[in-house]
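User: Can you write out an input/output pair for a complex, sequences first and structure second?

Assistant: Here is one pair. Inputs:
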Amino acid sequence: MMDPLSWLDILGRLLVQLLPVWLALLVLFALSIGFKRRLGLYGKLFDSAVGMIGFALVMFWVFAALFANMIITHDPLAQFSGMRNATPGTPLRDPAGGYEVFLLGGDALARDVFSRMIIGAREVLRIAPFAAMISFMIGISLGLPAGYIGGRLDTGLTFVANLVLAFPVILLFFLLVAPEIQNTAIPRVMAGILFLMPVLFFTVLLNARFFTQPLKRNLYVGAVLVIGLWAYSGLAFNADPFGIWGMSPNLLNVFVAVVFVNAPTVFRIVRGITMDIRTRDYVSAAQTRGEGPWYIMLWEILPNARGPLIVDFCLRIGYTTILLGTLGFFGLGVAPESPDWGSTINQGRRLLTVYPHAALAPALALMSLVLGLNLLADGLREESLKD
Amino acid sequence: MLFFLARRVGVMLVTALCLTFVVFYLTNIPAKLETLAKTQAGSRISDAEVASWLDRNGYNQPMLVRYGEWLGVARGWTRQLDDGSMTGRCYLLTGTTIPGAAPERCGLVQGHWGNSTRFRAPVAEVIGARLGATGMLMLWVLIVMVPMALIVGVLAGMREGSRTDRTLSTFAIASTATPEYVSGVVFIALLASSTVGLSPLLVSWGWIEGPVLFQGNARSALEGITFWNFALPVMTVALYGMGYVARITRASMTEVMTQQYIRTARLKGVSFPSIVLRHALRNALIAPFTVIMLQIPWLLNGVVIVEVLFSYPGFGWTLFEAAANNDIELLLAASVVAVLVVLVTQLISDIGYVWLNPRIRVT
C-alpha cells in the first residue's frame, strides 16, 4: 500500500487525468484564433481577454462532460471499503487493478469525489443549456408579438409574466418539484404547452420566410413538423414510438419548473427590445413593402435584437445552473444517488466542518462554470458593442 | 398619481389572489392531502382511514369552497359530534365547542390565518416570530450589501476602462457567479471549521480565543446577535446580491460620466472628486435604487438557503419546513407574505423611480 499523496502530487495527477480536456481546448483555441477574422462575433471573442477566459472555463466543463468516461478514475456510484470521508490523495486499500488513489478524497458514502464531480458536469450541462434554449424560444415567440402588436395582447401577456415573476422562485420549486406532483398531470400538461412553443416557433419562422415559394416552404415546414412533433411526443408525453426521445418524470418535473421560472424574464427582455426596434426605419420600410407581421417580427426585428439576446442567453445558462444547484441543494427532483453538483453539496454539508472536501469540490466546480458563462457574456457584450 | 396608485393596488390584489389560489391548488392536490393525513395521523394508516381523517377534518369539500373558507368569504365547515358539541373550522380556530358560539366565517378577511400542522401553533404567531428573525438578517444584509455595492459600482464606473474598473468589474461578476450555497460552504470550510481552513492556524498562533474564527451555526443569534455568530450568514447573502447592484451602478455611472453637464463641469475646472460627488452621483443612483428594491424579494431565495445552511430559524427556514411537511395554512400564509413583499417592493421601486427622476411623469 502506498503513502497518501502530497498536494503537489494530487495537482500533477489531476492535470494528467484531465489530459483529453487540455488537448481539446488547445485544438479549439488554436483553430479559433487562427481563423478569428472569418468567424464573425465568435471570432471577435478572441480579441477580449475576459471573453477568452470565460470561454475557456465554459469549454473546460463542456469537454470534461464530453470525455467524462475517459477522465473519471472510479465508478461515481460505487462505494469502496475504507474510503469513507477519506482525505484527498488517500490510496485505496485494494485497488484491484484500477486507479490506486482517490484524488479528491471520498464522500460520506465512500465514493470518489473527483469522479462524481466530473460526471456531475454531464448532469448539469445536459439540462441547463437545453432549458435556457426552450425558455428563450418561449420568451421570443410571446415577447415579439407583445412588443410589436401591443394592445390587449400585450396587457394580458405582461400580466401573466408578472404573475409568474411575483412568485418567489424557491416557493414555486417547493410546490412544483415534489414526488406527489410528479404523479399528477400537472408537469405533463405544462410540458405539453411549453414544449409546443419551439415547434410553433420554427414553423412560423420558416413559413413567414418561404410562403412565397410553396415548394421550399412545404419541404422545410414539413421537416420541422415531422422532427418537432416526434421530439414533442417523446419529451412531453413520453409517447415516442421509437423510444429515442424521452425524459424520466423526475427530469421532466425539474425541466418544466426551470423553464417556467426563466421564460417570463426572457419575455420581458424581448418585449422591451421589440418595442424599441419597432420604431426603426427598416421596420417601416418592410411595412411599406407589405410584409406580413410575422415576417417583420421574425426576420426584421429578431436578427437585429440578437446582440443583447446572445449575451442574455449565456447569463441565463449560468442562472439555470444556479437554479439546478438550488434544486439539488434542497433535494428536490433528483434521484437519491445522483452525482449532480447541487445534491452533492447538500450531502457534503452535514460534515462540512470536519471533511469539507466532499462539498467544496462540486461547489467550486459550479462556481467556475457559472463564472465562465458570466465572463463569456461580458466579453460578448463588449465585442458586440464595438460594431 | 392617486389614480396610478389605486390601479397598482388593484392589480396587486388580483395578483395576490391568483397566486394564493395557485399555492392553494398545489398544496391541496389529493396526493399531498394524503401525505398530510399520514404525517398527522400516523404513517401506517390505511386508505380508508386516510379518507375518514380527511372527511373529519373538513378536507373533503370542493377546492373552490375550501379556498373561499380560507379567504373568509365562504362559510367554514361544521360538524355535530356525538355528544352534542360542535366542531368545525371556526370552532377549532376560536377554541370553542358550544354550538353557535363560533362565527360563521373565519378566514383571512376576519383575521384568522389558521393553525400550523407542523409547529402545532397558530400560523400568525409562527410567522410573526420568524419574520422578526429574518427581518434582522435582511437588515444586516442590506446594511452590508448596499454601501459595498454602491462603492464598488461608483469606483468602477467613474473611470471606464481603467485598471480599477477591470478589477472591480471582475469581482462583481465573480460575486454574481457565486450562489449562496457555494459561498456559504466555502465560508464555513474556510473560517468556521476547527480542523481545516484558517481557524486552526489562528488558534495555534494564539490570535483567537475560541476554537473557530466564526461560528458556522447561527441558531445562537436568536438570543443575541454578535459579529461572531452572524457575520457568515450575512456575508453569504450579501455577496451574491452585491454583484448585480454593483454592475447596475457601474453602468449607470459610466453613462452619467459621458453626459454634457459633466464635461461642462470639467471644462469649468471643477476637481474630479467634486464632479463625482456633487454632479454625477445623484444622477447615477436612480437606477441602483430601483434595482435594490427589486433585489429584496430576490434575496428571499438566498435567505431560505442561508437559513437552512446555518440553521437559523427564520422565515426562510419556516418556509422550508412548511413545504417539507405540506403544512398547508403555514405555506399559504408564507406565500401571502412573500408575494406581498414582492409586490410592495415593486410598487416602492416604481414610485421611487418617478420621484427621483424628474424626467418621468405619471399621468
